[in-house]
Amino acid sequence: MKHYLILFSLLTYIFSCSHPSEGLYSYDSNTYYPDDLTGEQQQQIYQAQQDYYQVALKITREALVERYLAEEAIKRKTTVAALRKQYFPKPATDEKSLKEMYKKNKDKIPYSYLMVKGEIKGLLEEQTKAEQTSKLLKQIEREKGAKLLVRKPEPPATKLKTNGYPVKGTTTAKVTIVEFGDFTCPNCQAASKPLKKLLKKYSTSVRLVWRYFLLHDKGPSLQLAIK
Question: Where are the beta strands (DSSP E) in the chain?
């Protein structure tokens, strides 16, 4: 009984904080909303909501699976433990399997196999469990019409100043893309190609505003920005 009380309390908290449309606090008879916070404060609240959302989603998935397995165990005249072994078989974590996974991702791992062997095993088990859970949830959805109702928090809308900055595109465009970049940044240069294609394809509905985001306060970045 305690398990369900904790679950209910946690989800109630999540839902109440994910969409604070009723306001965050009152002060001198005035109610203040998320839009009244600074951009940094809004982002901090959103990050906290995202963290709680992931926890709530994990618990809800587990609760849904537990309910299904309990009903199936009665129907099939077996145990939940037996069904768990059926739906969640342990992945092969022998030396050969672990080394194969290490070789596939070797270019992303700057450590020797022996140093990360334990982490690879844990990651393999975690990935396999996630895949098995997703597969079972799809089955439960088909059979029971089940749906996860945990609401994902909405990211805060940020107001950006665009007047006075370099712009490409018509002023009547319905969509404005604001790019923060540095003239010496290779990633910014790589992003310019798809952006050019986007502006060409949607020339009447999209415009691009460029804002300087200097990677270095001295050298070529600053000189190019001044020019």
Answer: 25-27, 30-32, 167-168, 175-181, 206-212
